[in-house]
Structures are given as structure tokens and as C-alpha cells.
Amino acid sequence: QIDLPEPKINNTFKASLIYDLIARDKIGDDYVQKVNEFQYDAFWLRDASFIAYMYDLTGYPDEARRVLDFFPNWQREDGNFVSHGGQFDGWGQVLWIYNQHFKMSRDTSFAKKVYPSIIRAVDWLRQVRKDDIWKLMPESTPGDNELISGHVTGHNFWALIGLKNAVEMSLALDKQNEAV
Which of 17, 34, 86, 97 is most buried, by CB atoms within 10 Å? Predict the structure, then answer.
């Protein structure tokens, strides 16, 4: 809740929250957080991570949890989190938002539930880095606004942020041996 003397700001805040809530599809037990109902009427791990963070920041942790409960559907057998081929930024953003939600909500049951998937994701990164000459995230052709093929800088920065958050969650869950 914000309350400023300028009604336009208050109304913009409320409208933005409502637009994100509208941009969800309820499919079975899942809440699929899409970017919007128009041009980007689809699910992306990266965008849903930011929107879940917004729900937490604005006092709606239950809505954030509903969004995050859909993420395991996007973890592949090898441990990678990817919602769109070649777009590896979602990997780091999932690890980031899992820990951020845990830190804000203090929901230990959530952290314990997602922790095994974090370990699998980190194992995936260890494996793919072995095959890369620079020891980075895999080369890709995201086909998005980057319009490049190769090592995408943002994917690597998000990987670092994700790893930092994985370590934080490991320590918070008293799993020091897995944090190294």
C-alpha cells in the first residue's frame, strides 16, 4: 500500500498490480504468470521471477508463492531451468527469486521444498561449464533482444547472482557443506 498526495501515482501503483494479476492463467492447480495478456501472452522464467519479487515487495507473498510453485515444471531432467530455448538467464533468476522469496517470507517449508532443485541446477551448471573453454554459461542464440549468438553476458551475470543466492539459502538451511 502506498499513499502519496498525488492520486495519479497511487492509481498507477494499483493498476500495475492489477495488470500483473490479470496476466495469470489458472490451469489446474497452477498459476501461470505471464508478462501480459497482449503481445507477450506467454510464460518466461525471467519475467515471472521479477513479478513474483514484486508480489513479495508489495505484501502479497501468497501470490508470489503461487507463481513460484509453477517453476518446477520448467526444470529439465539435466537440472537446467529454461522456459525458452537458448535463453539461459532464467537459470540464475530462478535461483535468485527462490532465495529472495525465502528471505522475505521466512517460509522454511518453501526453502526446503525447492532446495533439491537448486542443487540439481547447480550440478547442471558445473557440468556444462566443464565443456566450455571459458568456463561460462553455454553459448546460445536467445533470439530475443540480444540478436547475437555466443556467450551472452547477461546469462553469466544472472548465473553469478543465482549462485550467490544458492549459497545464501544453503547457509540459511544449515547446509554449509553444500554451500561451497
Answer: 97
Q: How far is CA 59 from CA 19, 52, 98, 166, in A?
A: 16, 11, 16, 24
This prediction's pTM: 0.94
Q: How many helices (H) and strands (E) does the chain have?
A: 6, 2
The C-alpha cell at 159 is 548465473
Contact 64, 105 (CB under 8 A): yes
pLDDT tens profile 69-105? 999 999 999 999 999 888 898 999 999 999 999 999 9
Could you read off the pLDDT of 145-164 as tens digits, one per residue? 777 888 989 999 999 999 99
What is the 3 state secondary structure string of 89-152? HHHHHHHHHHHHHHHHHCCHHHHHHHHHHHHHHHHHHHHHHHCCCCCCCCCECCCCCCCCCECC
Tell which phi-psi region holds residue 80, choosing left (phi > 0), alpha (psi between -120 and 50) or beta: beta
- Report the alpha-carbon angle 66-69-139, nearest 5: 125
- Per the listing, cell 522456459 goes with 83
